[in-house]
Amino acid sequence: MTRVVIVDDQDLVRQGLRLILELAGLEVVAEARDGAEGVAAVARHRPDVVLMDLRMPGMDGIEATRRITAAQAETRVIALTTFDVDEHVVEVLRAGAVGFLLKDVTSDRLVDAVRRAAAGEPVVASAVLARMMANFASRPPVATPPPGFSELSERELEVLAMIGSGRSNAEIAADLVISMATVKTHVRHIFAKLDLRDRAQAVVAARDAGLS
User: Which of 74, 129, 201, 207 sees the fewest Cβ atoms within 10 Å?
Assistant: First the structure.
């Protein structure tokens, strides 16, 4: 059974999330009211997934995510926020979160996201990813290539740039006139060289490198 810790400073939010998850057969092993409590709860219970609010008094969700992913690599953190324009989206993904959801997510999608995260898959709300790319496009690029960037081949740079612009693997294959299997190989190599967990972090890496 997937084990979950909920971190949110609002009692009603925590209670609502707990009810949704438990009705779906998931186990909520602890709740926390701020980042510090969340870090302690994760250390104590070692859950599969953490639902992490970002805006909390004391230690916020970004710092808590950073500490959790550094200490418990097997625990997957999903960040939660009320606003899809939250300025901390990129920061929390850099801190190690595997995904980002809006608090108005439906019950079914929330449960699916927790299960996918527990299985090692990225879970980023499409509205959030679209807003990230729109925000990136509106800002002047400041290239700060991530570690490992110099190891990428020319083709891998092309693929990373396309990921950064929001293209799917199928669209990349069509644009470059290569097979899906080849695209997946390039993506796997990019993730390994740049130490990326998922596609959301690849979007951030492409932006940092000035590719999108």
Answer: 74
